[in-house]
Write a structure and sequence with these properties.
This protein is of the alpha/beta class. Helix content is 39%, strand content 16%.
């Protein structure tokens, strides 16, 4: 249940259209629903603006389905990240409304599809084609969270002219998510070109001394461009969550 759903319920209760018992019944799973192996946080959207997101990695297909089913029953958008093919197939078959994006390893159930009021465009920028899976995790997550999203891919610093030719799009975005592996230089370049917040995402793409994305992470943390914040390696979802909060009018 999110803020809007709760407001509608309380207004209906005030008008006498819903009984106290019915309201209590609909609120009985707040703040969480205990499934034994998991406590599903139905209060998350009221606190954070978006329902609990399920990390598919490390869970059995049965656990993923059970958690996603209860979140879907609450009526909002549902997002399952880091989901492998077998578990994804099971989820799509078991719970109506889910779609799976294999490149991003993301399953989504979208009930509310229009962007939130007053939100600007989140531009997701990737350095190379190999970074696209993480960029797509960020882009799709940001869309499900209610942001207008655009993509600008394969514009890394090895061919800097590709990025500079798109500078108008950089300037027009409200928030930028910049995804890069190797040495992780792209967010610094973008951060030096724009006045908007930049969320940097290091990826595990690179040769031996990239150390699974650690080199990109350290490079981004040491950026000299103001206004760049950094999330963890391959954490496209975390970047989308941060960008959404930056992009939400108060």
């Amino acid at each position: 249940m999110d803020r809007h759903q709760l407001s509608v319920l309380l207004a209906a209760l005030q008008r006498g259209e819903v009984s106290v018992d019915d309201a209590i019944s609909r609120l009985r799973t707040l703040p969480y629903e205990d499934l034994g192996f998991a406590k599903v946080d139905h209060h998350r959207a009221l606190r954070n603006g978006f329902p609990e997101v399920v990390l598919g990695e490390g869970k059995s297909p049965e656990q993923v389905v059970a958690i996603a089913e209860r979140l879907a029953a609450a009526g909002g958008n549902v997002l399952v990240t880091r989901l492998a093919g077998a578990a994804a197939e099971r989820l799509v078959q078991a719970v109506p409304g889910f779609a799976y994006q294999p490149e991003a390893r993301l399953a989504m159930r979208r009930v509310q599809t229009s962007p939130g009021p007053g939100r600007g465009t989140v531009l997701v920028v990737s350095a190379g084609t190999a970074d696209v899976p993480v960029a797509e995790e960020a882009a799709l997550s940001a869309e499900v969270m209610g942001n207008p999203v655009e993509r600008l891919y394969d514009v890394g610093v090895a061919g800097l002219h590709r990025l500079l030719l798109q500078r108008e799009r950089l300037w027009e975005a409200a928030v930028l998510i910049v995804v890069a592996g190797m040495e992780g230089a792209l967010p610094s370049v973008v951060g030096g070109l724009v006045e908007r917040p930049v969320v940097a995402v290091p990826t595990s793409v690179g040769y031996g001394t990239s150390m699974g994305g650690l080199a990109a992470l350290l490079g981004m943390l040491n950026t000299c461009a103001a206004g760049v914040v950094v999330v963890n390696i391959d954490n496209g979802f975390g970047a989308a969550a941060a960008a959404t909060r930056m992009n939400t009018p108060r």
